[in-house]
């Protein structure tokens, strides 16, 4: 039987690779491919099982973690999307009775979003399904392998954060403005 390295696979990020490519490039594209496949699976299941989207799920998850609610600007930062995206999502979720808008006492311009009781119930159903799906996506790895992978990624992460910090410092030192990153679409 052929190894997983030689099995034909659908077109993905790894199809860009050539035999002589550096192992770091190969690893990056493998991680990107796996992330894309996981995200696509979760998006599809949210759509088919709950008639929802990943951005809606992410917004509900943030509000579930903060029972006192969050300002729309806080949600925008946490979800790394524009305020307009949060407003559009909030409009949809409010019209479905899943969240409430409340004024912020110390800032007349700000609005705090909170899950409604129906929103808490709906999110609990979605979160349970989400957890089952994600667990099933990793069934190809043993418990020990999942722990090893988690430990390796934990070791990698600080270096990535530091690399990002160094790149930003270098851009600033060169007098280049920080590039306006394209925010993820929330709809």
Brief summary of the model shown:
The chain is mainly α. It contains six helices and three strands; from the N terminus they run H-H-E-H-H-E-E-H-H.
Describe the structure.
- With 187 residues, the protein is mostly helical.
- It has helices at 23-50, 54-65, 72-79, 83-95, 117-137, 143-173, and strands at residues 70-71, 99-104, 107-115.
- The protein is built from six helices and three strands.
- Strands 1-3-2 form a three-stranded antiparallel beta sheet.
- The longest helix has 31 residues, at 143-173.
- Residues 181-187 have low confidence and may be disordered.
Strand coverage percent: 5-15%
Order of helices and strands: HHEHHEEHH
The chain-level mean pLDDT equals 86
Query: Runs with pLDDT <50, length 5+?
Result: 181-187
Rg: 20 Å
Shape: globular
What structural category characterises the helix and strand content? mainly alpha
The helix fraction, in percent, is 55-70%
Query: What's the total count of β strands?
Result: 3
**Strand order of the main beta sheet, please?**
1-3-2
CA-CA gap between termini: 43 Å
Q: Count of helical segments?
A: 6
Largest sheet: 3 strands, antiparallel
Keyword list:
globular; mainly alpha; disordered C terminus; three-stranded antiparallel beta sheet; 187 residues; 6 helices
Spell out the blueprint of helices and strands.
Elements: H1 23-50, H2 54-65, E1 70-71, H3 72-79, H4 83-95, E2 99-104, E3 107-115, H5 117-137, H6 143-173
Antiparallel strand pairs: 1-3, 2-3
Helix pairs in contact: 1-5, 2-5, 3-4
């Amino acid at each position: 039987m052929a190894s997983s390295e030689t099995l034909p696979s659908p077109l993905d990020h790894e199809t860009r690779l050539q035999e002589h490519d550096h192992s770091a490039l190969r690893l990056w594209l493998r991680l990107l491919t796996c992330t894309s496949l996981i995200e696509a699976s979760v998006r599809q299941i949210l759509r088919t099982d709950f008639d929802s989207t990943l951005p809606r799920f992410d917004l509900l998850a943030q509000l579930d973690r903060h029972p006192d609610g969050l300002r729309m600007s806080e949600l925008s930062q946490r979800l790394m999307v524009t305020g307009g995206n949060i407003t559009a999502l909030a409009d949809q979720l409010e019209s479905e009775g899943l969240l409430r808008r409340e004024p912020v006492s110390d800032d007349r311009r700000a609005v705090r979003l909170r899950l409604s009781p129906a929103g808490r119930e709906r999110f609990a159903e979605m979160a349970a399904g989400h957890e089952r799906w994600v667990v099933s996506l990793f069934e190809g790895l043993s418990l020990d392998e999942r722990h090893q992978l988690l430990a390796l990624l934990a070791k990698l992460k600080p270096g990535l954060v530091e690399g990002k910090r160094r790149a930003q410092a270098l851009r600033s030192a060169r007098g280049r403005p920080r590039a306006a990153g394209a925010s993820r679409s929330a709809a």
